[in-house]
Amino acid sequence: xxxxxxxxxxxxxxxxxxxxxxxxxxxxxxxxxxxxxxxxxxxxxxxxxxxxxxxxxxxxxxxxxxxxxxxxxxxxxxxxxxxxxxxxxxxxxxxxxxxxxxxxxxxxxxxxxxxxxxxxxxxxxxxxxxxxxxxxxxxxxxxxxxxxxxxxxxxxxxxxxxxxxxxxxxxxxxxxxxxxxxxxxxxxxxxxxxxxxxxxxxxxxxxxxxxxxxxxxxxxxxxxxxxxxxxxxxxxxxxxxxxxxxxxxxxxxxxxxxxxxxxxxxxxxxxxxxxxxxxxxxxxxxxxxxxxxxxxxxxxxxxxxxxxxxxxxxxxxxxxxxxxxxxxxxxxxxxxxxxxxxxxxxxxxxxxxxxxxxxxxxxxxxxxxxxxxxxxxxxxxxxxxxxxx
Length: 389
What we know:
Elements: H1 2-42, E1 47-53, E2 55-71, E3 74-77, E4 83-88, E5 95-96, E6 101-105, H2 108-141, H3 147-180, E7 182-184, E8 189-191, E9 201-202, E10 211-214, E11 219-226, H4 230-239, E12 243-247, E13 254-268, E14 273-280, E15 292-309, E16 314-316, E17 319-325, E18 331-335, E19 337-342, E20 345-350, E21 357-361, E22 372-376
Parallel strand pairs: 1-22
Antiparallel strand pairs: 1-21, 2-11, 2-15, 3-10, 4-6, 4-9, 5-8, 6-7, 8-10, 11-14, 12-13, 12-15, 13-14, 15-20, 16-17, 17-18, 19-20
Helix pairs in contact: 2-3
């Protein structure tokens, strides 16, 4: 009996010890959870975002479009006389200067015609000299020479004088034909693919040319703009030739900067656009005839405009909005009105003021009133000024 009582006593003591441990664990576990919850309430989670300042700056207003580069002058060089090509003095793709020899045609027939015209003039000059002497003799004879003889001789002198003038014109024509045998560049430009070879017979009656030359310094770009923008373009052109920028077709690389030269004299009724022509110095030959480019035409500059990065502008069901950060580092939703946007910047007409901070990255994690930690946005991540607030 004493042994069984001892066992029961041990079991009772074990059960009481287990109940005591369970109660202590439950009490202290709830107290730890409450302390953890209280700690979380005291230090709420911050959302990491990037911000940028709302700036006041001059904002250029551009009209964008697509254009095609054209040579300022383009000519298909043709022969003006018939003959065989003796020499081609240019290389395809070569930059030729005005007056440079391009092609030489066999000059011998034209030289012979020139020599013949000069000889004819010398012959007529000799005849004129003899006729003039005869006229002087008849004049000195006075009444011993009949009036008919004197008049006839005077007429002969006049005829020979006129013949010499005709000979002079014939010499000039023969010299011109001889000069045409040497074909020269009418202006400076780039020579294209030649269409003839040495030994070919060319003649002035055919339409086939010798080579095409395109002037690329300066060079022109033809582009279009909507007709409803015509008043703004005319107003800008009336002040000074507006700046025009030619870019690569993807709009990422500036090729050249020039000025607007003219507005076409009529609107294309089928497309509702007006054609414009801009000129570029093109000293580096960045533009090439036939090349497609994107264009930007500067029509105005907004002074002291309110400007933010495009990344700050968000689209919602009620329109455009942006998040700002207040003095308590909390996100504030602002409805905004955007009028212009280019090169990653937007002009804000309503909703923001210069000096405020707008969120440019991380908006998808932000709600009005969210506590945020900010990093100043920078184009170079290495140089980003990060400051935990």
